[in-house]
Amino acid sequence: MNFSAQGKSWIERASSKAIYFIYLFVGLPLVLGIAYLLLPQEQAGASSVLRIEQAQRWIEPLPADAEFTQEYFAKLSQQPGNFAQAEWQTATLPSVVELDAKENLGEKPVLARAWFKFSVKPSEPASPSNPFVLYGTRAMGGPYSVWVNGQLVFANLDDWRMLWNKPIFIPIPQNTYQAGQPVEIMLALPHRATLGYALGSLYLGNQSDLMLARDTRFVLQTGLPLVSMLMIGVTGLFSLGLWARRRHDSANLWLFVMAVSLIVCNLQFTHDVAYSAIRSQWFGSLVDSAISWVFLSFFIFVQRYVGASYPKITALLAFFTALNTLLTLPIWGWQVHAILLQHYILLATYGLVMILLTWLAVSQKSKEAIIFCISIWIMLLGGLHDLSRMTSQLKPDAIFIFPYGAFVLFFVAEYLLRRRHLSLLSQVEQNNANLKQKLNEQQEQLLNQQNLLIQAREQAVLLAERTRLLRDIHDGIGSTLTATVIHLRGKNASPENAAAQVQSCLEDIRMVMDSIEPESHDLPTLFASLRRRFTDAFVAAGIQAHWQLDDIEQLQLKSSGDALHLTRIIQEIITNCLKHSQAKNFSVTTCLTQNVESQPQLKIEFTDDGQGFIAASIVAASATGRGILNVQQRVQKMHGVFEIQSKQSHGVRHGIKLPVA
Amino acid sequence: MTISIAFVDDDAVFCEFLSQAIQAEDGLSLHSQAVNLATGQKLFQQKPADILLVDLGLPDGSGLSLISQARKDWPHCQIMVISVFGDRANIVAAIKAGAAGYLLKGMDAKQIAQEIRVVHQGGSAISPEIAKELLRYVSGEPSGQSLGQPEPCAKLLLSPRELEVLVLANKGLTYSEVANTMGITESTVKSFVRRAYQKLQVTSKTEALYELQRSGKILD
User: Fold this and answer.
1) Inter-chain CB proximity A532 and B132 less than 8 Å
2) Minimal Cα–Cα distance from B214 to chain A, Å?
3) Phi/psi at A118 (5° precision)
4) What's the pTM?
5) d(CA B35, CA B31)
6) Helix count (H) and strand count (E) of chain A?
């Protein structure tokens, strides 16, 4: 598939590239840079802020009936430790006991409480509006409590399950210390013995000096992830709306699924929505499994968007995701431990998949696919960072990078949607332009064809006319002049006869010329012309001519060439009658009938009351015989029927039946 | 009182024959002759002839212009057109221009003299095809040529008798047959034909004027 955009102006290309660069190479490092620049060295400059380098640590084992519940911790926080039996050791801060990925879990967790003790000597008393504050990056393991000079000053269990992702910010009440006197501060951190704990860097200073650090940390650990959830949520809803209208465009659906998974996944960093231990476990497993859903749905989204399909890999990942979700449900006993393991396996699996996808994207040179791969690599690297430093409790001062993956995915999704939107728009414009052009071309073609048709018709008409004229000339004038030449060369050549024959030729030509118009071959004029021509000849021969022409007013012959045939036929018959019949009367009658197939038919009859002839003598090679044969041929050419009847002394009757229109 | 005849034709053989025929016939006299359009136009500088015979196919132009000029310069002269075949298209064009009749080059001297006398007496000859054409003008149909544009035509208004003559002529009846059918003389038949021709001339002149006006060549 080719995703490269064509025909963009240089501004568009530059601006799309610019956004690409801004997103990936400016925005993200900016965020990461802020995170890393600001936090670990916080407030190194302010002189009133004291960094607590070391503390005395004692890990107090808790009795066997200890439970990891809010009720137990509420009681526990009221009880100071049995310090008489404490064994204090020096520990540097941050102090961690790493979370072991491999150790198994028994039925009931064994709890312990880590005590950190240190004393400071504030130089001047703080004012009530700007008290001293104990500030720490975070405390992971359980809900901590703080004692100052033996008094409990903090044991707040509100949202205690999220304390691992919130900074420690405990104001030191003024009534717990005196200026100039050393202040002993203790922090108790209960935790599961096998899972260890992590306590980040601790600072003591004025509230005004440490507020910025706390707020920055809040924004980076809680605020921005919330914003990212909102942004990806909006994108997801938009995609869902798109998919609802175009069901076949399933890429949008999977973007929505991915958005939902990301929101669920990122919830773990901002809220603990469960208020009971059981629901909390379920919630915990859900948000952890959500990470694998994010990857799976993103993978499917990429396939749908790009149009490629890797069903086997998808099935494998889906199976793995389902297995992962199942195995980390809190119905099994090893649930808590499997979380860390699961993450590493997840990372490894998706790492392999990403290598494959990246290779495919690069080999296809698809810009979108490469952007996809970069964003997933960022998320994987963020996940790796978080796992190795955070989830493992190795570096409590750092922040979780993984939730920021939602920003990356948001920008990528927005870029893709916008790109598709714009390309669709330009496609539509292109299509419209193409259609318009095609329409114009077709119109031109149609006009051309029309012209060609008109020309062809005219040519056909011309050709038909020419053919007809040639035939007319050949049959009429040609044969008459030939007869004239032969006559003149003969012994009995008479100028008068020759002149009459030539005059008859002129008359023929006149008829041809008058017949130039195709519509002029109507039957009445045809008969009239012949009648007019032969009237004087009949009179001279003493024959009475009777013309009874019925039904022929609106009739037309089937083709224009038929008029010539009919004229010659009638000429021949009349000439025969004039020459040989010695009749007193000659009559021509017409009437319209139907043939056996119910087609209209014109019946013409020529009758004379002359001497007639014997049929046999007609067949003889006489001029009359040839003439009758000619008539027969012509009638046949007109698809008609010709019959001739004669009896000696009883005249001749010619009957012609012609098809008409 | 002899009939003075002028003729314009470029066919030397026919001209010779014609002048001999005229001189041989009593009652006909040769007025003048010309061989082309240019010399033909000069004829009108002389005093008028009774009959003018014009050949349409002159070498330097169509004889139709001579016909129209004769109508103006020699108003009482009757014009006949000389035609080889007597084909309808040429004859009707000549009639529209103002001709009263036609001669065929194939006619013998007697026939020519006869036709001239008929025209001199106010009659005109007709054929079934010519009658057909005039009937088309009566019904207002355009006399379309096969491949060209139909000519503009106005309706030709004829009296019932004139119309009847045309209809019978179109049926192929001879003059005597028409006369018998209508109960009139042959010369009356021929004068009806002449009247029809004159009306056609008027109608076609009006039509031509109308066309010129429409195309803007004449301002109202």
Assistant:
1) no
2) 28
3) -155, 155
4) 0.53
5) 14
6) 17, 18
